[in-house]
Amino acid sequence: MFEKIEIERFRGIRYAMIQGFKQVNLFFGKNNCGKSSLLESLFLASGGANPMLPMNVNIMRGYSKSRLNDLKLDFYNFDSRQPIHIRLTDGVVRDLNISLFEKKENSISLNSDDAHILSNVEEDKYGLKFDFKIDGRSFISYLQFDPANPNSVMGLAAKQYEELLRCTYLSPKYDFNASIQGLKSILQNKDEHFIIEGLKLIEPQVKDFIFTDNEMLIDVGLSKRIPVNMLGDGARKIVSLLTAVYNCKDGLLLVDEISNGFHYSVMCNLWNVLINAAVKNNTQLFVTTHDIDSIKGLKDAAIGKYESLISSFKLLKSPEGELKAYHYSLEGLNYSINQEIEIR
Questions:
Q1: Residue-by-residue pLDDT tens, the chain, 344 positions
Q2: How far lies 20's CA from each of 62, 206, 313, in Å?
Q3: Is the distance from CB of 140 to CB of 152 less than 8 angstroms?
Q4: Which residues contact 199 (CB under 8 A, 6 or more apart)?
Q5: For residue 159, which of 144, 137, 185, 141 has the smallest C-alpha distance?
Q6: Domain coordinates of the chain in residue numbers?
Q7: Which CATH architecture describes the domain 169-308+325-338?
Q8: Which residues are CB-contacts of 185 (< 8 A; sequence separation ≥ 6)?
Q9: CB neighbourhood size of 222 (10 A)
Q10: Phi/psi at 119 (nearest 5 deg)?
Q11: Using an 8 Å Cβ cutoff, are 274 and 237 in contact?
């Protein structure tokens, strides 16, 4: 399980150092305080040798342009003279530097062991270089673009490196159709019971489900099974959450704005189901919210049952770009709620 992250010069974060992570970690704060950027930092470091991840996190934000100035959006104050640096620790240190290159010559200087990766970069090409270190080993990847056709991308991942860590990022605009594919493994292993338990939060009449023709059909006691889409956004998100927990066994799941699609009355039960699934699958959760009902739900679910598994942090960003995280115990979280500390 990851214990600590250090971030330098990523998006609106000039510097952050957050430690004390546990199995379930909740980050709350006002809009634009750095919650999503924190999750994206975790996502990048979890697959540091994968050069496509920066493009993926931008696409999750609904932005897919890749001109030279667009790449600079990932750097603090658009200043790409120094690399983005993310350091993630779980006993083993994952250390990632992302730098921007814009070259007029025909090659890029690299360590001799990895020179074959970036040799013969063509004139006027630009892109991102990834210097990733893990467990004392160093790997280099890159992403290259042609200014004449910015939508054409060429990426080379580091050779002799295979990422074993499983990590999924569920953005507020999650793709349900992508998530639902994981149901095949759940059904094959006869583990569908915790999906059904989760769906009962939305519709108590749920009895079972089947997966056929790439469609999830739910038995709610009617004469025919109905598509899960007919149960609304909340049902689809529960399926996505629990499927992602299952697929991230021994890894980590990142959830941005967990309360989207849910009525406040189900939040406590949702946390119960989610934490149970995380414990069963040894999945570490990193979750954000700006909704006080999500925080109340976690507090109510965890008191007397999961205290040792929970860490919660209030995020504040200084005018100088430092992201500060204030750690709250469950008792402290309860006090904050009772004092009606503004987090919406």
A1: 999 999 999 999 999 999 999 999 999 988 888 999 999 999 999 988 888 888 888 888 888 888 888 899 999 999 999 999 999 998 889 999 999 988 654 444 444 444 444 444 445 688 999 999 998 889 999 888 877 776 667 767 777 788 889 999 998 877 777 776 778 788 888 888 888 988 888 889 999 998 888 788 999 999 999 998 888 888 888 888 999 999 999 999 999 999 888 888 889 989 998 999 999 999 999 999 988 899 999 999 998 889 899 999 999 999 999 999 999 888 777 777 776 555 54
A2: 32, 38, 10
A3: no
A4: 206, 209, 218, 228, 231, 235, 238, 239
A5: 141
A6: 4-156, 169-308+325-338
A7: 3-Layer(aba) Sandwich (3.40)
A8: 246, 247
A9: 9
A10: -75, 150
A11: no
Q: Which two tokens stand for residue 275?
A: 């934490």
Tokens representing 70 are 């667009």
Residue with tokens 């099974």: 225
Handedness of CA 288, 290, 296, 299 (dihedral sign): positive
